Amino acid sequence: MNKILCSLLLVASLTGCAANHFKRASGYTNRQSAIHECFGTYDNEPRLPNQHIDINHLISELVDQRANTYNWLIWHNTNDWEDLHAFLPIARKHHIKVWVTLVPPSEAPPLYGTLSSEPFRLDYERWATELGKLSRNYPNLVAWSIDDFSSNLSFFTPEKLKSSLELAHQQNPKLAFVPCWYFVATRTPLNPAYTNLLDGILFPYLSESTHMNLDDPNQVESEVRQMKGYFGNSLPLIVDVYATPYSTLPNGSQPAYVEETMKRAHRAADGVLIYCHQHKETEPVKYDIISRQFHSWAAETPRKK
Q1: Which of the two residues, 19 and 76, has the higher pLDDT score?
Q2: May I ask which residue range the UniProt record assigns to the signal sequence (predicted)?
Q3: Of these four, 19, 105, 190, 269, which has the most CB atoms within 10 Å of its CB?
Q4: 16 in a domain, yes or no?
């Protein structure tokens, strides 16, 4: 009888631990649950000589690292949208969820070269419709984002954003919207009209609560708490860790910084993405660090088959 009781208590204890591990996800909508506990990389796809993306190379590295998410930036080439269609079914076969990031007006011509997010450029209602259709055909396309969203709020008014999201959800109500929002933008009061429009936040960590840098990981937890307080604890917060330079911080980050920031972000937030994807051949140290962390996290959060 005592052995049976002990067994029951052990099962209850393990069940309780599992429930605690996923407690933050219990109140999430379907869209929010799809991005919860994501870990993966963002941008910097390998290219073939014809400038199409080397999908097989990218997939092999994501699988090797055990990433469960990849954030596909449409900005670098006119064929990025076309290549995304080829990437999605292969990523799905390997249980990799996909986000798509578009650039805002502040990163479009004439400010940044000649390319915007092609082919629909700043027509975000068209993008919303097309991404909704695509995600309906490929359920592993779970989210879309707009880079530097918090720096473009005068353009992305709540009314304009609501119109775009309604079009996306007409095609696929499961497609999440997770814009990029910097810490410095939290110094301006949040317009409450945005509250019900966002499914999560992609938070690029730059230690902005002290001074902008890619050296100090020590502010991760406090900045995540402050971001959570700004948006509300119910909104998933995904930390974007810089493994490459930021525009005004051209020296980039060191491997030890990447590792420590990843660890802190994983403990404090609801997911972690690495900007940018690091290649095994050109950045072996950072590649190995990211791989070790992802392997550890994958053991905690097995992929759904």
Answers
A1: 76
A2: 1-18
A3: 269
A4: no
Pairing of strands 38-42, 201-204: unpaired
CATH label of the domain that carries residue 270: 3.20.20.80
Tally of structural domains, the chain:
1
Query: Is the residue at 78 inside a domain?
Result: yes
- Asked if 52 contacts 86 with a C-beta cutoff of 8 angstroms, the reply is no
Q: Do 193 and 217 contact (CB within 8 A), yes or no?
A: no
Orientation angle between helical segments 284-300 and 55-65, nearest 10 degrees: 60
Identify the weakest region by mean pLDDT among 14-23, 84-93, 134-143, 286-295. Answer: 14-23
Q: For 189-238, write each residue's pLDDT tens digit.
A: 999 999 899 999 999 999 999 999 999 999 999 999 999 999 999 999 99
Boundaries of domain holding 177: 28-300
In a domain, 111, yes or no: yes
Answer whether residue 17 is part of any domain. no
Contact assessment for residue 46 and residue 83, using Cβ atoms and an 8 Å cutoff: no
What does the block give as tokens for 223?
């900045």
The per-residue pLDDT for range 186-195, each reduced to its tens digit, is 999 999 999 8
End-to-end CA distance of the chain: 38
Q: What is the mean pLDDT of residues 106-120?
A: 91
- This prediction's pTM: 0.90
Distance CA 212, CA 186 (A): 15
The pLDDT, as a whole number, for residue 2 is 44
Q: What residues pair up with 241 in beta bridges, in sequence order?
A: 274
What tokens does 188 get? Answer: 């301006």
